[in-house]
Amino acid sequence: MKYLIAGNWKMNGTAASAKALASGLAHKTGVSAAHADIVLCPPAPLLPIVAAEIGQGLIGLGGQDCHANEKGAHTGDVSAGLLKDIGCSFVIVGHSERRADHGETDAIVKAKAAAALKAGLTPIICVGETEAEREAGKTATIIARQIAGSVPENATAANAVIAYEPVWAIGTGKTATTDDIAAVHGQIRNLFNGEGKANLRILYGGSVKGSNAQAILATAGVNGALVGGASLDLEDFWRIISACP
Ligand code: PEP
Question: Which residues sit opposite 161 in a β-bridge?
Fold first, then answer.
C-alpha cells in the first residue's frame, strides 16, 4: 500500500507563500521520485493558487473541511462539490480543531464525510482522544465512539482515509509512543466496517516532523501522516515524505 502524506496548512499562509511552497514541492517531486502520495490542504482561498503550481501531476489537492449540504444558505462554508470542481481529490473532516472550535459532533463529521464521498472526494476522517481522556484510560472508548459515529456506512478502504490524531499531540511537540500508535491504529483497523480493511490507509498525526517521521512511519499499522506545522516548511515536509518506507 502506498503511503499518504497530507499537509494541513491550517489557517496559515499568503498568496505568495502558498505559491512558493507549492512550487518548491512540485519541483522536488519533479527531480526525485516521491516515496508516497502527497496531498496539500491549504486554506480554501489558496486552493486555486496551489492548484496552479502543482498542475495535474504527483501532488494532490485537498480541502480542510466541507459542509454536509450540497449548496445553499451556509455563509462562509464550502461544499464538497465545489472542492471537487476546483481540483481537489481529498478533504479533511472532523479535525479536532473543528470539533473543538465549531462544536462538530460525530454525526456532523459523518454527514460531511458522506457529502465528500457523494462528491467523489476522499475524506480524511480524523479521530483522537484528548489528554484528559488518555489519562483517564478512555482512549479506546473514545476512538470506538468516534469511528462508529464519524465513518459513513459506504466508506471503504478505496474511497476513505482515517487519521489518528491524539489531540494532545497536535501542535504541541509531543508525540504518542510508537507502541500507543500501533495499538490505536490496530484498533481502528479492527473497527472499520468498510470493504477492504487490510488496505485502509490510517494516517498518524500529531507533531510529526522530519526528525521523528522515520520511527512513526515505520510503526505497525501506520500508512502515512497528517502533518500540520512541519508541512509549512518545505525542507522538513520533504524529509517526512522521504522517510516513507
Ligand atoms: C494537524 O493539524 O493535523 C497536525 C497534526 O498538526 P501538527 O503536525 O502541527 O501537530
Answer: 124, 201
Nearest protein Cα to ligand 1, atom 1: 228
Hunting for cell 504527483 — which residue is that?
58
Residue nearest to atom 2 of ligand 1 (CA): 228
Helix (H, G, I), strand (E, B) or coil at 83: helix
Kindly state the DSSP code that residue 233 receives in the 8-state scheme: S
Ligand 1 in reach of 115 Cβ (< 6 A): no
Give all domains of the chain, ordered by start, each with its CATH number: 3-242 (3.20.20.70)
Is residue 171 within 8 A of residue 229, CB to CB? The reply is: yes
pLDDT tens-digit series, residues 67-113 = 999 999 999 999 999 999 999 999 999 999 999 999 999 999 999 99
Distance CA(123)–CA(12), nearest Å, equals 21
Instruction: Indicate if ligand 1 lies below 6 Å from the C-beta of 206.
Output: yes
Residue-wise pLDDT tens digits, 108-149: 999 999 999 999 999 999 999 999 999 999 999 999 999 999
Cβ partners under 8 Å of residue 237, min gap 6: 5, 7, 25, 227, 230, 231
Yes or no: say if 70 and 36 are a contact pair by the CB < 8 Å rule: no
Say if residues 182 and 141 touch (Cβ distance below 8 Å).
no
Contact 33, 66 (CB under 8 A): no
Active site residues: 95, 165
Q: Work out which ligand 1 atom sits closest to the CA atom of 169.
A: 10
CA-nearest residue, atom 4 of ligand 1: 228
Cell of 227: 502533518
